[in-house]
Amino acid sequence: MAMTNGKTLVTMIAAGNREIQDFLDADQRETPYLVIDLKVAERQFRRLTDAFRETQIFYAVKANPQPMLIRRLARLGSSFDVASPAEIDLCLSEGADASRLSYGNTIKKASDIKYAYQRGVRMFVFDSEAELHKLAENAPGSAVFCRLLAGSAGAQWPLSRKFGCSPDMAVRLLEQARDLGLKPIGVSFHVGSQQLDPTRWEPSVSQAARVFRELADKGIHLTLLNCGGGFPTGYQVPVAPIEAYAEAINSAVERHFGPYRPSLAIEPGRFVAADTGVLRAQVVLVSQKSYDDDHRWVYLDIGRFGGLAETEGEAIQYRLVTARDGEPTGPVVLAGPTCDSVDILYEKAPYRLPLDLKPGDYVDILGTGAYTTTYSSVGFNGFAPLATFCIGENA
Ligand SMILES: *Cc1c(COP(=O)(O)O)cnc(C)c1O
Fold first, then answer.
1. Where does the Orn/DAP/Arg decarboxylase 2 N-terminal domain start and stop, copy by copy (predicted)?
2. For ligand 1, what atom is nearest to the CA of residue 62?
3. Is-contact 302 34, C-beta < 8 A?
4. Ligand 1 midpoint to CA 230 (Å)
5. pLDDT of the residue at 5
6. Does ligand 1 come within 6 angstroms of the Cβ of 229?
């Protein structure tokens, strides 16, 4: 067992995962690093397939593009939501078939569309007329779906405004897609990441149904409703179970589409990847700002630039575990190690850590399997990008 200042690490098992805890205890690797357990990804994927019957699942690769994770999901029959040539190459080389890739980024260079098409990708998203022309020219005959604007109320990491168009525009553009020789197949939307309210899908499902009906009147029969991602993980407090999301989406589809039920797709990222990972960091410094202010500042060897970008606005509040848990605690401001003043993780959120916390102590950050390694800078201030170790390959 690893020792920290003479104390054995007998803490709460990280994310309830014995194997990850064993890995963390086994060796004193240089921090910070992320450990992900592929078995957890498999469990999460199976929870999705159980909850969402007859729904095609496109794992959103950007959440965590670890090759072994992609390989595991490909073996389980996952499809993939990709956003760039590099993500396409990754999925293909890890065993996914091109027919299972959806180019889900609404902002693509013509040369990237052409590359995707050459590699066999035949499903693309768009939300503008200019993008449609690029697709018609560089991916002729491909299946295309239009992304609708969606509100992000209830989401802890909103995605609104930047993506999607109005339903009226979607109707016109999908008609135009047909005229340009593309195959208009449906619509998509994304209600914001870490969406805590299962009822937030309904307004978009309702809009989508309207788009389907208006196009049916013009002789265009859409078949695909892509409900995006957003399914949350319980960082500090439990969230509604995935079944509640499936139930809310399915009943919204039933209500608004009636007997004309479309094929369903979802694009989960965080739900699959977040719980796979624990990030081990180390305390670099504990200090205070004046002799009469005993508010502690705790500086870790990871911060906003090392992979914890989702602490922006303190949006995602991770659970922290230390070897001194159970001892008396006090409030802290948590910050990263770089020479940039935005590199503060939590200042308003009421984080408390043991009063005895010292430089060299480990701090384990739970639920960090999604949106961490990909957000890590290439070496701001000379700090190395966040390393990943995978376990559970053969289980
Ligand atoms: C990022 C992204 C997702 C995944 O979102 P989560 O909230 O992680 O589930 C799904 N679809 C698209 C188009 C995305 O950009």
1. 42-274
2. 1
3. no
4. 6
5. 38
6. yes
Q: State the sign of the Cα–Cα–Cα–Cα dihedral 25, 27, 32, 34.
A: negative
Q: State which of 193, 275, 276, 368 you would mutate to test the pocket of ligand 1, scoring each by most atoms of that ligand within 8 A of its C-beta.
A: 193
> For residues 311 and 68, what is the distance between their CA atoms, to the nearest angstrom?
26
Could you tell me if the CB of 127 is within 6 A of ligand 1?
A: no
Residues of the chain with pLDDT under 50: 1-12
What does the DSSP 8-state code read for residue 95? T
Q: pLDDT tens-digit profile of 150-197? A: 988 888 988 878 999 999 999 999 999 999 999 999 999 999 999 999
Known catalytic residue: 339?
Answer: yes
Active-site entry in 146, 165, 339, 390: 339
Q: Per the omega criterion (within 30 degrees of 0), is the bond before 32 cis?
A: yes
CA-closest residue to ligand 1 atom 13: 104
Taken in order 271, 105, 136, 74, the sign of the CA dihedral is negative
- Candidates 15, 60, 50; CA nearest to 272 is 60
Q: Which residues pair with 124 in a beta bridge?
A: 103, 144
Question: What pLDDT was estimated at residue 14?
Answer: 53
> In angstroms, what is the span from residue 193 Cα to ligand 1's centroid?
7
Domains and CATH numbers, the chain: 19-36+274-391 (2.40.37.10), 38-273 (3.20.20.10)
- Give yes or no for a contact between 144 and 127, defined as CB atoms under 8 angstroms apart: no
Q: Which ligand 1 atom lies nearest to the CA of residue 229?
A: 9
pLDDT at 13: 53
Q: Minimal CA–CA distance to 205: which of 228, 233, 183, 221?
A: 228
